[in-house]
Q: What sequence folds into this?
């Protein structure tokens, strides 16, 4: 398992709801959390590791020892939103790139946890921001899609650099062609959704 970077097509994949919690899913979540901590992230969505499932993990302290801050959201849905706040955001699929994004200040999110229980969270601050950012991923939406034209222009060269790096990796055979990536995502989807 690895975190894919922009413009990998898995990041534009619209993920499907999971049907069950089992040991396989728990193992995936563990790997996602380990990758997130290794790169000092505060959240990660399943399609960032090429899994086509509605699944996100979060730890706003980015500290594996802070277990009380570690959360898993299965099939999350944001049901209420309140207020608006603009803050600087980054993303593990866009190393070292940041930009200001407007998000709801407070949200209510419904999801299942790893015990298979339905949970309702009322979140604000950084937790609300991370959940909104990660839920966007599940719909194939990236934080750069929510930047103002001026702020998008400010990181244009960084994005072009990532695109060039991706094209180079593909020429080296490190990244398969789009059709193969799509076929693999569809196969994984059949197994669990
Ligand atoms: Zn992200």
A:
């Amino acid at each position: 398992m690895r975190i894919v970077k922009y413009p990998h097509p898995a990041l534009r994949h619209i993920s499907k709801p999971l049907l069950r919690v089992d040991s396989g899913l728990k193992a995936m979540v563990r790997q996602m959390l380990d990758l997130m901590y290794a790169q000092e992230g505060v959240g990660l969505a399943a399609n960032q590791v090429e899994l086509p499932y509605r699944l996100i993990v979060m730890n706003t302290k980015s500290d594996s020892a802070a277990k009380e801050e570690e959360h898993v959201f299965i099939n999350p849905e944001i049901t209420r939103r309140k207020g608006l706040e603009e803050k600087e955001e980054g993303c593990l699929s866009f190393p070292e790139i940041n930009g200001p994004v407007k998000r709801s200040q407070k949200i209510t999110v419904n999801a299942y946890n790893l015990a298979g229980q339905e949970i309702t969270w009322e979140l604000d601050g950084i937790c609300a921001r991370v959940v909104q950012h990660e839920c966007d991923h599940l719909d194939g939406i990236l934080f750069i899609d929510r930047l103002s034209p001026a702020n998008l222009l400010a990181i244009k060269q960084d994005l072009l650099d990532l695109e060039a790096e991706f094209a180079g990796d593909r020429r080296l055979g490190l990244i398969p062609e789009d059709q193969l990536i799509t076929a693999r995502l569809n196969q994984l989807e059949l197994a669990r959704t």
Remarks:
- DSSP finds five helices and seven strands in the chain.
